[in-house]
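Hey, quick one: can you model this chain's 3D structure?
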Amino acid sequence: MSIATPKEIFAPYDPAYDPLVSDGPGHNRDYAPTYWAATAGPAPDDDGPVSGDIDADVVIIGSGFTGLATALFLAKEHGIKAVVLEANRVAWGCTSRNGGQGQNASGRLYRSQWIERWGLETARRLDAEIRYGFETFKDLVADADCEPQPGGHLYIAHRDKKMAFLKNEARVMRDKFGYDTRLLTASEVRAEYCNDHEAHGAMHEAEGICVHPLKLAYSYMKRARAVGGKVHPSSPVIGWQTIKGVHHLKTPGGTVRARAVGIATGAYTAPGLHPTLTNRYFPVLSNSLVTRPLTPSELAETNFLTREAITDTRTLRFYYRLLPDNRVQIGSRSAITGADASAPEHYALLIDGLARKFPPLKGIQIDYSWWGWVDVAHDMMPRVVQPDPKQSVFYALGYGGNGVSFSAHAGRRMAQRMAGEPDPVFDLPIYDSPLQFPAQGEWAARFRRFGQSMLYRWYYLHDEVL
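Sure thing. Here's the predicted structure for all 466 residues.
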């Protein structure tokens, strides 16, 4: 057993890390300089790096929300004690770099798009599963010291023409799915929630909880270990062989042998980790920053009466909220490549966005700034699958930035699949097909970045000009 302390020596954080071109996520690297890492407090006990060969029933690769939740539910609901392997520090990737917004959602598609794509019956079944997933998340949050901020989700129309979209979505959610959605005028947004100068109105959803994501991950880890799971940081998988149905996962400290493997590495999946994942998702960058605490006069001028999740209707949306210590956190899109991630224009995008939304905060001191990679699926919806029924390999990936809440349930469902327990819901779209981009191969994946840069230009025109 090891106990992480401030004196422990970690390899430096690599700000230019890029999943498409880097050899892997590294070994024993420190956290990104996030507000969450700075305020989470000491990491709880873990099981130290792998230091010898190990036989395990099940191995989970990745110690973020998904991996830790999978380990927790494997033990709690199926009596299986998992070994979790993490390349760097616990929850080093997506889990410690997101905005902490837990919504009643899974991927990037709206419920009206579910109907268009799969029909009303399937959409309603999928909605029931996502609601159940949000209950899974709420149950875990209720038992965690993670600074929960309930209240729902406020979806801001950043232009007047976006109100038609919100009206339609609110109607679909009320009439087809039974949600208590509320449409707000611009004056109602400013009087009841916050004085967002870009708001032309909004849709309010009752379900939503914001959290301190790293504190929540620490809670998952403590609970997973309490029921028999093992968590080994600084143990990247640097080799993988399957011999007579047994997976041999090589780490710097020894080989872990297991009958089944669950992959929960998100956008930080090492190239070549396993063939079922090669070029099957697309990693994109998101930037985030946190201000100094607002003064009483700034709180009055911005009229922040809510601490719930807020997003706007841009395609490359801003997501923001007031934190428990009265700081503002805001995030949005970032660079195309890791090499360009530290370029000042990406930081400026958030600074300018914050000032447009809340003019009294123009020039405010920024205490924390970071970026992180997001795993995006080809159809903007996650997958929790066994991609090849002949192989005991599973993965839960592709949240597209909406994984804070659904990752808990994805871990629950991946645990169920790894335990070999069937369920009627597994014929739903997020469970019955693997991640699949139309064009495969390394160069096809890199060419997507050219397309991404063109799309970003189009999104800007669509969101701000047309």
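One thing worth noting: The radius of gyration is 21 Å.
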